[in-house]
Amino acid sequence: MTSLNGTQSAPPVVSGKDAGKIARAAFVGTALEWYDYYLFGTAAALVFNRLYFTDLNPTAALLASFATFGVGFAARPIGAIVFGYVGDRYGRRPALLATIVMIGVATALIGMLPDFSSIGLAAPVLLAVLRLVQGLAVGGEWGGAVTMAVEHAPAEKRGRYAAMVQIGSPVATLMASGAFALVLLLPAASFDAWGWRLPFLAAIPMLLVALWIRLKVEESPIFKDLLAQEETVKAPALEVFRRAGGRLVVAVLAALLGVGGFYMITTFAVSYGANTLKVDRSVMVNATLIAAAAQIVVTVFMGRLAEKIGSGKVTMWGGIVSAVLAFPLFAMIDTKSPLLITLAITIGIMLIAVAYAVNGALLTELFPPKLRYSGVALGYNIAGATSGFMPMIATAMLGVSGNQSWGAALILAGISLLTAVGGYLGGRLRIEDKHLVADNA
Fold first, then answer.
1. Range of the domain at 269
2. Residue 279 lies inside a defined structural domain of this protein
3. What's this model's pTM, rounded to 2 decimal places?
4. How many domains are there within the chain?
C-alpha cells in the first residue's frame, strides 16, 4: 500500500471470491439505510408539513418540514466523525452494525410518533430529534459500506463492487416510493390518520433481516493488516483535516451532485409538482419509481465504465452533462404533463446516477487505508450537509421567482459543475492501493 507520504508496506492478501459476497451484504444494509432516509424525504413533502407543523401557514409549514429534513444532513458530518473513528480505530464491521440499528429504530419510532394535534409542539421537536438520529447513523453508514466493499475487492474490479453498494440507493427509492404509492391509494382521511405510518413501521422486520446479514460479514482484510502493522491512528478525522485537507475538499465536490442533485430531482420536484403546480401527488411519486429503475441500469454500467476510463472522468462528464440539461429538465416539469414530468425526472436521475455510481470508487481512492473510513465518510457527508438544505433553499426561491423553477434549475446546474471539477481533480489525485488477490472471482 502507498500512503500519503510515500512509504510502502506489505500488501495484504485478499480473496477475490469473497468480494461479491461482501458487496452484496453492504448493498443490503445500505438499501435499508437509504429506504429509511428516503421515507422521511417523501413524507416531508407530502405529510409532515400538514400534520406536524399545522400552526404555520402552508408555505412556512413546508419550509419547516424541509428544515427538519435538512437537520438529518447537518448531523451527518458528526456521524462521519464518530463512526469514522470507530471504523478506522476498531474496525469497519462494528461501526456498520451500530449504524444500521440506530437508523432502523429511529425510523420505526417516527412511524409511532403522535402528530401535532395530539401532543402539540412536542411532535415537531421529537420528529427533529429522530431525524437527527437518522442523520448520525447515515453519516457513518455509506462511508463504511463502500470502504468494506472496496477493501475486499480485487483492485481491477473495484468499480463494479463499489457501484453495487450504490445500487442500494435506487432500490431504496423503489421501496420507499413504492410504499408511499401504495398507501396513497387509501382514502385521504385514512392516509393522514395511519396509512403514512405503515412504510416507517416496515423498517422493523427489514432491520432484523439486514442485521442478520451484516453479522455474517467478516472484517476488512486491509483493516486487519493495519492492526497487525499497528498503523491505526488515534484521531483519524483530525488527521484527515491535517494531512488530507485538499483531498477532503475534492471528495466533497465530487459527492455534491449525487446527494444534492438527487434530492433536487426527487424531494424538491415532488413538492414543487404537488404543492406549486398542483399536479396529482401520485404522478410525482410514480415518476420517482420509474426513475429509480432506470438508475439501477445506469449505475451498473457506469461502475464497469469506471474500471476502463477511471472514476474521475466518469464523474467529470456526468457533472457537465447534468449542468447543461438542468434548465430543460425543469422546463419539462413546468408543462404539468404527466408524461413529460416522468421523462424529466427519469432523465434527471439517470444523469445524476452517472457521477453517483462511481462516488464509492472515487472517494475511497482519495484516502490511504488508515484514514479511509473517516475521509470517505467526511467527504460524502459534508457534501450531504451542504446540499441537504437544497430543497428548502429552492422552495424559498420560489417566493422570489414568483413560483418559477429557474432558481431550482440554477442550483442544480451549479452543484453539477462543482462535481465536474471534483471529478477532474479526483482522477488526478488517485492513490494506488494495490493488494494481492488469492482467488479472483
1. 13-437
2. yes
3. 0.82
4. 1
Query: How far is Cα 157 from Cα 244, in angstroms, rounded to an integer?
Result: 25
Q: Which of 212, 349, 204 is nearest to 288 (CA)?
A: 349
Residue 215 to residue 226: CA distance in whole angstroms: 22
Q: Is 219 helix (H, G, I), strand (E, B) or coil?
A: coil
Counting beta carbons within 10 angstroms of the beta carbon of residue 107, is it exposed (0 to 12), middle (13 to 18) or buried (19 or more)?
A: buried
3-state SS, residue 207: helix
3-state secondary structure of 436: strand
Residues 6 or more apart whose CB falls under 8 angstroms from that of 35 comprise 172, 175, 176, 203, 206
Domain-embedded: residue 288: yes
For residue 193, the tally of other CB atoms under 10 A from its CB is: 13
Determine the Cα–Cα distance for residues 286 and 299; give it in Å rounded to an integer.
20
* Average pLDDT for 309-316: 94
pLDDT digits (tens, 9 = 90+) for 108-126: 999 999 988 888 888 888 8
268 near 325, Cβ under 8 Å? no
pLDDT tens figures, 369-427: 889 999 999 999 899 888 767 877 888 888 777 778 888 899 899 999 999 999 999 98
Question: Does a structural domain hold residue 7?
Answer: no
> Residue 291: enclosing H or E segment and its boundaries?
helix 281-309
Give a yes or no: residue 380 inside a domain. yes
- What does residue 121 show for φ and ψ, rounded to 5 degrees? -60, -25
* Helix, strand, or coil (residue 121): coil
CA-nearest of 188, 143, 127, 150 to 14 is 150
Best CA proximity match to 405, nearest among 273, 267, 291: 273
Give the domain CATH number at 229. 1.20.1250.20
